[in-house]
Structure formats: C-alpha cells, structure tokens
Predict the structure.
Amino acid sequence: MPTKKKLTRLERVRAEMAAHGLTQLVVSDPMTIFYLTGLRIDPGERMYCLLLSSDGSARLFVNRLFGTPDVGLPVINFDDTDDAPALLAPYLNVEKALGVDKDWPARFLLRLQELPVAREYRVGSICCDMVRAVKDEAEQQAMIRSSQVNDSCMVEFAAAIHPGVTERQLAEKILAIYKAHGCSGPSFEPIVAFADDAADPHHQNSDRVLQRGEMVLLDVGGVYQDYCSDMTRTFFTAEPTEKQRQVYELVRLANETAEKLVRPGVRMCELDVAARNVIFEAGYGKYFNHRLGHFIGLNDHEYGDVSSASRLEAKPGMCFSIEPGIYLPGEFGVRIEDLVLVTEDGCRILNAYPKEITVLK
C-alpha cells in the first residue's frame, strides 16, 4: 500500500482554513511564524505578519530593520514611515472574509478595516492553533527531551531547599540550574511557595524565609531547544501531619486518575471531571479552584485547555498538563503536575520525577 503523504505545516494550516471557510489569513503571532517558517523575530511595536492564501501563496511582511530573510517565501519589506497595513491590500480579496490572529494589535487591524480590504474580519488563529496543538514526530521528541531535562533539574531544585532560604533566593537558584542544563531560559517565572503561600495557586515569590517543618511547592519549567517543560511537585521538610498527608494523597490520586484516562477520543472535560470528582467526594471541592490543565509546546500555555468547558477531543500528538490542586487558605497548598503526550493507544507521561510523599532531610 502507498504510504500516506505527510502534510507540511503550511499545508495543514491551509486545510484548517478550508474547514473554517477562510481563503485568506493573517498570521501575526511571532512564535507561530517561527513554527511555520523557522524565522524568529521579536518585532516589538512594528507590524510583522505572514499572509496565507488558499491558492497556495504566502507572503511575509517584515520591517526593513530586520532585513530580508530567506525563508523560501516572497518578503515585502517596509520602513517605519510606511503605512504598513496598507501594504497587504493588493494581495487581499475584498469579496472574501479575512482571518486575523486573535492577538493582532488593534492599530493594525483597525487600519486595515478603514481601507477596507475584505468582506468581513474574523478571528482566524484557530487555523494555526489546531495545527500547533497536534505535535509532529520531531516536536514530540523535543517535548520528551525537554521534560527529561526538567526531571534532572528537579533533583537539584529539591537539594537546594533548606531552612533559611527565601522564596526569591530559591527561584534564582532554579534559574541558574536551568541555565547550567542548557536551557535558554525558564518556560515561565518559577513559582516557589512556602507553607500557606502555597494556598495561592499563582503565588508571587517573596522574601519569606523557609522555616523547618514547612511545606514547599515548586511549579517550574525550562525552555530546552525551543520547547517548554512544566512540572509541579510539593515537598515536606518534616513528617506530614495526618491532614497534610490526606490532602497530598487526594491530589496525587486525582492526578493519576485523570492520567489513566488519557487516550485518543477522550474529551478534555472528561479528564477535568474525573480529577475533580476525586477531590469533591473527599469534601475539598471548593479548594480546587482552577482548570485541570493547559496545552504546551513552543509556548508554555498554548491553545487548548483541560477544563470542564472544553469539548476538545484528544488526538495523538497533543501535549498538555494534568495539575490538580487543593489550596487551604492560611494553612497550605498541594499541587502535583505532569505533562502528558497523547499516543495512538493512550498516553506517555513525560515526567518521571517521583510523586510519592517526599520528606527532605
């Protein structure tokens, strides 16, 4: 039998355009342009976009400040004094709808609408988002490697926890460890939370000093060869109390219950409900106050979430977090997070760092 042709990333985006009834699309997210062309530019306040058409044509619009990159596509340069959005007009069909990125600055979109150059304007970034959500083989291997690096780093993070260290000091140490392991930077600013600070899911690191016996929550990730990792572990610096142990094991059970359900065809909302039910049935439902997870890849948070509102079905190649938590104000918080990669018949859990109760000596 002939092998099925693998579509290029641009071809996959055009297939999504057709599915959404779009014949022309402005792609302006720099990371998506990098994903599609290999070109990495931080345009700052300047217009930077890729115009895709269903006829197979593509044009890159780049300020002359960044040169004329060789990406195998026609490049239209412009200067700071040019009316940059107007340069798109000759290549647009005024009779057709135009898809634009959800985050394209209003100063460019509104100018385009003044011209006008399309019958209507629609958010079209879903065409790229859905393609990026399903990682190809090279991306899957990159996600695996990035998480393996994160596992190795977590060993050193745990070793750096000691009474007397502050949250900020530990966060700075975490950044240094990522750099030493070849990461270009963190996926996000590390979350380091001691004791009741961990009851805030998105705690901002402070100068709080760790006292012997307090719990420590680390939510961390590094960017390794362009791809992000993300993992959360909660540590003890003394034997846990009965309540702490109960809460920790509930969170671990919720995490593992959801992970066991991950397979092609399962809906994201089903995973959220499965984990949430474990916590609700134990009477801690109101203390699990965020979605179960988010998609990840070139960005730490990509399109797609694991929540009760998401009807998105898992497909092989999708990668997302499973991170239930229980947050008790004034007491402590526990979160356990892994990344999972959907396979043809289930999933691969990308984090091997242990989830059993760990008491640091």
